[in-house]
Amino acid sequence: MLCRGDTPTTAAWAKGYEALLWNGQVRTMLDRQRAEYGHAHSPTRRAALHGLITHVENQDSRLSCNLFRAQGLDMGSGCVEAP
Asked: What is the structure's pLDDT at 70?
């Protein structure tokens, strides 16, 4: 677990990373996640951060939201999932 429930702290944590993704700052996001991992004491939190970091590293080329927006590409899954 990275954050506890639906709290203002959780919302702020998620918004911070969302802004980095939106602006194409994946490397900065990874640096912050790695720093969080280094300071995490809970095995559960460390495992969750490790999973998140691994996912972001593996999907790096698919997370360039700023470049996709500049090309006018859809970034959501709605057009694929919609009937």
From this structure: 80
Residue 41 token pair:
């004491």
Tokens coding 47: 């495992």
pTM of the model: 0.74
The pair of three-digit structure tokens given for residue 72, joined into one six-digit string: 């006018």
pLDDT < 70: residue spans in the chain? 1-5, 75-83
- CA 55 remoteness from chain centre: 9
Residue 4: strand, helix, or coil: coil
Residue with tokens 């790096």: 60
Helix segments in the chain, DSSP class H: 8-22, 26-39, 43-58, 65-70, 78-81
